[in-house]
Amino acid sequence: MDMELPSPEQVAAILPKWRAEHPRLDAMLERYGEPVKALRHMGLLLWQQGDLGPATQMLAGAVSLSPAEAPLWSGLGGVLFAAGHRAEAASCIKSALSRDPTQATDWLMLGTIHSTEPDTSVAEEAFLNALQCDPNSPDAVISLGLLYTRTKRYAEAARCLKDAVAAGAESPAVHTCLAQTLFNLGDFPGAARSFGEAVRRQPDDPPLRQKFGQARFLETILDCTLEDGLAAYQEAAGGAPEDFDKLTRDSFHILSGYGHLEAAIRLGEALQARKPGDPIQAYLLAALKQKPMDRAPDEYVTTYFDKFAETFDQQLVEVLDYHGPEKLHALVASQGRPLARMLDLGCGTGLAGPLLKAPGRVLTGVDLSPRMLEKAAARQAYDHLIASEAIAYLAQQEHGFDLIFAADFLVYVGDLAPLLRHAARLLAPGGLLALTIETTTDGTYRLLPSGRFAHRPAYIEDLGRGSFGLLRQEPTMIRLEANRPVDGALMLFERV
């Protein structure tokens, strides 16, 4: 959006009024002898004082009188951005850069303006241009690092933020951001050092000290006992953990996710000794030890997802970048089939419900977790919601379906032969079976340290041969695990 400027004639006409309202402008005009410098100086002064309306008017007047001067456009862009007019500010900064592309501060301003947009490419290019103009600009390095952090490009973020610290950046925010970035990369010793630097500069910040404590706990537990880890936490955080269960549970998942399996097993065994009846810890520890299993136990699934139900949607969609239902629904919709009776296996909180439901369709959701079903019911998309293990439910059904939809359900089932057998019985010819899986190239299926199963797509094809024909198969990113993409596949079968 281009900035609409007054004409030179309009500026000349209003100048006496501005002189009367702002005596300092009158003095500046006397000093400089011509209005452009006086208007720029006065506009910047008013901006500094927070009087953004008159500041904008005077800076716009200066630009109108001398549009070839890049600094005038820069000043106008800055005050517009301060006033919340992002599009006009960006237009002015671009005008400044078109006249003088060597100014790092203008590129930095342009990047800052665009940094909150969904497409970060303009901001990234601007910050890189700022660094090209001034390789020693700490603001450009920090801004680029923060942009990479926001877009989960943690390795690049760590490189930028380390450069900023090496160049002398002392802000607690920079050290905190670097620490969190290193934490997200699984570098717990590095994260602990950086959190320690942030705490040294900002010691009276309890949440920061807790993050420092968690990093020290993980750093210590890599080679030591649970008790050693808790002592390290207490020293760093300034006290015992407020929520012992959350600290240790989260740390167990973090260690497992980042591949520190020996440390995760040690921690898991210590936690199981404290709570021998915990079905979640028992199953996940068994998965880490690679004990042979063909599905996750019902007690684990129910207990885990009942606890997870309240934050499930936010955690999966916003944190783990999970979009399985949307992707799988798009695959189903591409076939243009009439689907009168639909079954959502492992429906969870009902993320797929609003996608699948339409007039004339009957949608049934099945899940083991009562709390997840409560969330699904609140979406008001399902005609029937059943609390049951999914394959047991299929085994009891006599009436058929036009679609069996299973997004992120098969990750809790290894042996898929019973599911394919019942699906073949319940789907009429032309019916659809839609699945998402985490993929492996090993054998048939494999239990992962996360407690989830990965399947070889050819294994599912082989199981369905004679009953199902594969319509489409697409590779996909299932979700993030330890901030890394998990490979998966969308598979759509037709009952033949």
Instruction: Please tally the helical runs, counting DSSP H or I stretches of 4 or more residues.
Output: 25
CATH superfamily of the largest domain: Vaccinia Virus protein VP39
Which class of the largest domain in CATH terms? Alpha Beta
Number of strands: 9
Number of domains: 3
**CATH domain topology of the largest domain:** Rossmann fold
Distance between the termini: 56 Å
Described by strand count, sense and barrel closure, the largest sheet is: 9 strands, mixed
The amount of beta strand, in percent, is 5-15%
Radius of gyration, taken over Cα atoms and rounded to an integer in Å: 30 Å
Determine the structural class based on helices, strands and strand pairing: alpha/beta
Please name the CATH architecture of the largest domain.
3-Layer(aba) Sandwich
Unreliable stretches, pLDDT < 50, 5 or more residues?
none
Outline, from the CA principal axes?
Answer: globular
Percentage of residues assigned to helices: 55-70%
**What's the overall average pLDDT, rounded?**
94
